Amino acid sequence: MNAMDAAEKKRKTIIGLALVATLIAVVLVEEEEEATVDSAQPVAPKKALRTATGKSSAQAVQNDNLDVGQLGQRKFDPQAGELFATTTWAPKRPQINPEQQAIIAKKRAEAEARAKAPPPAPTPPPLQFKYIGKAIEGNRIWVFLAQDGENYIARIGEKIDEKYRLDTVNDESVTLTYLPLNAKQTLTINDQQTGRF
What we know:
By secondary structure, this protein is of the alpha+beta class. The protein has 4 helices and 8 strands, in the order ααααββββββββ. The strands form 2 sheets. A 4-stranded mixed sheet has the order 3-2-1-8, with no helix packed on it. It has a 4-stranded antiparallel sheet with strand order 4-5-6-7, with no helix packed on it.
């Protein structure tokens, strides 16, 4: 109970001191305002000038009462900076000399040229066939080929494994066409083994 009373007394004392400080501040501000009002001197209005027709000129009265020189000029603090300036937090880019600019421009041009260039034409896979031999009967020629443990027998114009077609056969080579790309490929005959029926 004593601790609560001490805390309450302390709180009330702080509030009382704050109230006294506020009252002193109000009194000081009022005294400054009165001093400011006392230093101002009233301007007596001049009588309106009458024109030849007898009307008063309000414009002339206003110009006589208003002394523009007393208004003063607005002064801006140069340290305040520009009011509507944009602020960016990105780091500034380092300065690039002309040689570096030329290198960057060249690389950019090369990249654009590569992007615009058509892709290279597809090429057929290398021939995996091994020539085993050939057989001749009159005008007909059979060629014996092997690939990955599979043996194939084909005559000119026939398909091999649905991907190749046998085109020509001579003593030095066998010509095949890779059907998906319609590309001709030549298989060189190393061992000339010819059988006759």
